[in-house]
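Record pair follows.
FIRST:
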Amino acid sequence: MLKLNSDESFNFELLRLLSHTTYGGADISECLIAAEEIIPGDFESWYAVWNRRAERILSQADSLSDPVSIRDAMFRASTYSRAADFFLHSNWEDPRLVSLWKRQAECFDKAIAHLDGTAYRKIVPAKGFDIPIIVFLAGRKGEDETKKRPTILMSNGFEGSMEEMYHMHGAAALERGYNVVVYDGPGQPTVRRDQGLGFIHNWEAVVSPILDYLETLPSVDMSKIGLIGYSMGGYLAARAAAFEHRIAAVFQIDGLYDFTQTPIFSNEHGLSRFGSGNDIEGTKAILNNPKVPAGLRWALGHGLWAFKVQTRAEFLEKARRFSLVGVVEKIQCKVFVGDGEDDMFFKGQPQLMASALGDKATLVTLTAEDGAGEHCHFGAARYTNHVMYKWFEEEVVKALENSAKS
């Protein structure tokens, strides 16, 4: 595939941002101009270029008058604000972590106010924390919102946001007549900032309260609940399904069985090459060493922030809990186990997951020939959503309807 940046991590993240164009979260030339301007491996350059993109769109906001233009512009400004934040997390005190996130949320809210259907934010209380969610109801505003519909819950993973999930899989689900609920849990961007909470491995503590809330909505068919987990969210979704049996189907995009057994933590090229030191200064030295590949500096810096720990040893200790060994047997629902043919992060994990699940798993390998071979199938949103939701329609929606008729 054509390279957008000579730095491997920057190239991947640029493809990810370019993927937002499919469902209205970015524009092609804006992304390509940014790619041309960014200095490879330079986190401040990455911030400056994407911040400038967002500010340029916002400088034109006063000239926008029709709802479609406002929606499109605000979605793009939101995406580029999130992009500007992406590589900054190694400095927890950086004020941009707060200001950029506030701006992306404000822009996103202005955008969803101009969607054809109803969309709103809500806080769902959980045990010891609150869960921010965004609800998108299928159909147009003013239509019958008591019609029960299949509903897809979706969360991101290690670093992504609930707002990103709208552009990756949410808009596609709405087009197919499904309600959508996106959310952030502990460790994910909004909860980490607003509540100061790092990741927890027992993700059912996040999903179950959301399902309790959905039971109060007349438009939700509780027998047809799908749960999407994106990247590391594949573990989170499967873990939740092991203990929460109101879920009819899980989508692992992609299959993740044991987090610390991925290339991210490998001894040769991953974080384990630096050892599992318990010294803060040694960890800071890695983060500030420009000779360390940008992807590893980011993975360590963001991982410490997201898990709310100070050292490599603490990070590894907490990350080890993100394993489905001894848990996967409790999953009762059907599981779509996604597999990117050229996935550089989770290679081999989908096969382990499918083997552990047995006949509950549908292992689906998406290939480079269809443009879908990358991690999370970035760049192939239309095709990926077609494959995912066709499976859900056949395995859950139609299967339940046929069962009710017989």
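SECOND:
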Amino acid sequence: MTLMSVATELTQEKDRLAIDLAKLKMDVCTKDEKLSRTKKSYKKALDQLNDLSEQMESPKAHAVEEYKLSDASDDNNTKYFLAGFELLRKQVKEKYPDLDFDVFQSYEDDNSVMLVEKGGDVAASMDPQLGDDATT
């Protein structure tokens, strides 16, 4: 091998490497652009998701409040309260068999436990059992 052939071979190798480097730079630029578009798309989708989540919170809160004000909510609360009351009566009968707990009955109507207004003040319930024993 002569010096000239080595120089030619090295020049060809340098040109091939320069072409490969240029291709790699183009690939990097293409991938950077694609990554940038993907990031923008992701950010846009995330913003839309956050907006939709916020929009869903208001109707959800409204639906919960509406349910709380409904008769169905009152019926469920009454049902579970009465079930708890009956469980308490059974437990008291077991623990204190001599105590006549039957005098304590659940109410059949809401009017028997509603507060009565007297002269603008809210007075004690019409039920004497619900009065404050500490003051009588």
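COMMENT: The beta strands are 115-118, 121-125.
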